[in-house]
Amino acid sequence: MSLDEYVQALKGKSIAVVGIGISNRPLIELLLENGCDVTACDRRSFEELGEEGVKLKAMGAKFHLGEDYLEGLEQDVIFRTPGLMPFDEHLQKAKENGSVITSEMEAFFSLCPCRTVAITGSDGKTTTSTIISELLKAGGYKVHLGGNIGNPLLCEVPDIKADDFAVLELSSFQLHSMMCKPDIALITNLTPNHLDKHLDFQDYIDAKMSIFLHQNPENKLVLNFDDEHTEYYRSNSHSKLSYFSDKSEIPCGVFCENGVIYRLKGTERVKIMDAAEIKIPGEHNVLNYLAAFEVVDGLVSDEVCRQVAMSFGGVEHRLEQVRCLNGVTYINDSIGSSPTRTIAGLNSLTAKPILIAGGYDKKIPFDELGDEICLKAKRLFLTGATAEKICNAVKNSKYYPESGVEVTIIDDFKDAVLAASASAENGDIVLFSPACASFDRFKNFEERGNYFKKIIMEI
Q: How far apart are CA 372 and CA 347, in angstroms?
């Protein structure tokens, strides 16, 4: 089915699009341009929508706004925003009354004419998705990078050709109860995350399974050989399995041993490169490359893989060097929205940084982060909704009494950044890696990272 045929089939039906955000805005405009009956639902008021609301109203959109924006959902088709879980009581009631619940990403999968690579996991999704995209482009393919990485692709379907690749970063929110069948699926790792949204950790684990549940033996699933959840996923998979590891030699796939990255071809080890040749620093990025190299096996040569790894400079907001001022290096790691990501950032640095952390509370523990901060940070500035929780985790750590780490809580984000900067001396690193989501103060991690960079550039 073409995109035009899909949209035409929606004409004559009532449609609700829940959430007027990045992923749904182009969808709303597409439906309105084709004469569909669309109600745009959002927690914000019309005034808060600003020019966006005025534009959609002029195009013919109806609105259901404010705190009760989920009440009375009864449209024939309801497109949910990724952050609204399918088990929400309002969606469940609508489904029981005959509504079809879907999403922009689910619609894209049903219409996408090209091969798809889907990536999920708790950490490394964005970097690994971007690396895979870079590898495929270097291998001569046209690539469409999207999904949770911020670029909705549904409206681009008419421009996608059969021999292209769509590389899709998918969150547990998007995957939960979603029907998809990627040609290649990758799960980077699993750690507790988004427990404010999921029913429990098992619900989070199972949501990730949607990335491969509908695959067949012709489709490929790449798993982290050393992750404790891999056996659970393997036992539920009908896919062609391969692995990556930086700890073990594996049955098939890509692994790192003694600083050398190998691809296993039958029983033969084929060297791809030395891990030290990878341009972006950190052991976690070695893992990201191991996963990406296995994803593109048979599509991109090992020599091209090596060339990309030696030249690719990384993803914005992921350990991004902002500037060096008066001997102080400022690093933006706003994408570090979980404790494990911030720990990876701390482990990638050669000196103890002055760390700025805190943000939206996803109801996940900070105990391990507290230990790592004591061991690997020089000073800690906390801000946002989780400041007290992280502070308690640090001070309750068995390493705290001997660590010498100073902890300061400052409510205002800008004041916290400026205080961290003022405390820095020649040779110091100031690392902004929140270990939390951004939603207590910002729309997303990009807005948060850009604001951090603006503050630093204005010093």
A: 9
Side chain identity at residue 19, one-letter code: G
The predicted model scores a pTM of 0.79
Nearest to 61 by CA among 36, 82, 81, 44: 36
Q: What phi, psi does 97 have (nearest 5°)?
A: -90, 10
Contact 246, 283 (CB under 8 A): yes
Query: Per residue of the chain (459 residues), what is the pLDDT tens digit?
Result: 899 999 999 999 999 999 998 889 999 999 999 999 999 999 999 999 999 999 999 999 999 999 999 999 999 999 998 888 888 999 999 999 999 999 999 999 999 999 999 999 988 888 999 999 999 999 999 999 998 876 789 999 999 999 999 999 998 888 987 889 999 999 999 887 666 777 788 988 998 999 999 999 999 999 999 999 999 999 999 999 999 999 988 999 999 999 999 999 888 999 999 999 998 888 889 999 999 999 999 999 999 999 999 999 888 898 898 999 999 999 999 999 999 889 989 988 889 999 999 999 988 899 999 999 999 999 999 999 999 999 999 999 999 999 989 999 999 999 999 999 999 999 999 999 999 999 999 989 999 999 999 999 999
- Does residue 117 contact residue 151 with C-beta atoms inside 8 Å? no
Q: Which of 294, 309, 316 lies closest to 444, judged by CA?
A: 316
Element (H, E) at 446: helix 445-457
What is the per-residue DSSP string for 27-49? HHHHHHHTT-EEEEEESS-HHHH
